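The protein record now logged underneath.
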Amino acid sequence: MAFRTAKIISDQYQYGFAMTEKYVYKSQKGLDEKTIQDISWQKKEPDWMTRFRLQSYRYFKKRTLPAWGGKLKEIDFNNIYYYVKPVSQSVKTWDELPSEIKETYDKIGVPEAEKNFLAGVGAQYDSEMVYHSLVENLEKQGIIFSDLDSALKLHPDLVKEYFSTLVSPNDNKFAALNSAVWSGGSFIYIPKGVSVELPLQAYFRINAARMGQFERTLIIAEEGSYVHYLEGCTAPIYTTDSLHAAVVEIIVKKGARVRYTTIQNWSNNVYNLVTKRMRIESEGIGEWIDCNLGSKLTMKYPACYLMGPGARGELLSMSYAGSGQHQDAGGKMIHAAPHTSSRITAKSISQNGGRASYRGLVRVNKGAKQTKARVVCDALILDKQSRSDTYPNMKINESETQVEHEATVSKIGEEQLFYLMSRGIDQTTAEAMIINGFIEPIVKELPLEYAVEMNRLIQLQMDRRVG
């Protein structure tokens, strides 16, 4: 009995609408030192940040594009707007926002998310954070949750101490670009011993055509603290390409725990090129939950640097590549201290000619004894036109370690379908059950309430069209 796999996941993009462009300031297209100085002047930044931006721009000009990963040569850096300021300042009440921005986030579901289950919400629209809200009792505990621009003004010493300590502006071409033109992003500070039981969330939206969004997020979790940060992203569909090049730096102090969840559903005209790093000290726990469901090209490899004894890092990665999409995702675990442990679990689905790649690094430094590292990457290919690749890299410089790597590539088998259908389940439902079972290890780690985003962004729509 022969089966043809139906189109399991819909390629129809629900968030491709765009609002009329309204802005307070918009930079000229392209990038030079004057544009960078204008951005810094618009933001009224201290001199040290202006100098940092200009030096980063010089690094950006010198660095070449990566020769690995996806196709990057089509990016036209001269055809991008690097700074679009939609409002004069961030607000703390939803009613203060312009109507077109409120309508955008109403459609996405952010206000409802805030009302139902979140401790705090931030919303970035093009280049700026336009809205931030934090539950009052958390502010009384000394928790800071704001956009990074505001933190630079209100908490300058704290920002200067940690800013760019994990991601150097000369680390790679896109980190250099972000360092030169960064705008928006979240700043979170959790005092010693404080636990934030409800999630904090930020939502990033590109609205303008040919727009570059370069948010920069900095999270500091002091000793024995805990926070879960959620991030979602969407963009309109345009015939021209947009660029998203973010940087995330997270410092996890002794015995602290940080979970960072991302669900990115960019439209298929967006290059999504992100540098994310987490430094984890003794007995600390750092967790990345990374879901990539859109974009033209994603290149993203969240990293954990395990710097103190007993530190633990985990990455749960899920990516879907549909027609015209390439997801090149994975992660890095750097063991720099003894008795550290890490685990990478990566799941990918490719359909309708999409390409999904796992690219990862596990490195155990000399002296990092009694460490444990495990990598599991599984790929599900739904048709003959699609592709999956695995590029694992392991550098083990210590003998007293335990390192494991496991990889599988599979498709929906006729035997699986026959078994389920023989018990009265129709083919469409049977295929959906198999897909749900495949991604379940990732999805179960998301908070139930996060269905506000997840149910909208991962839709197993069975439409019986052959993939």
Summary: The first strand starts at residue 25 and ends at 26. The mean pLDDT is 80. DSSP finds eleven helices and 24 strands in the chain. Residues 70 and 444 are 30 Å apart (CA to CA).
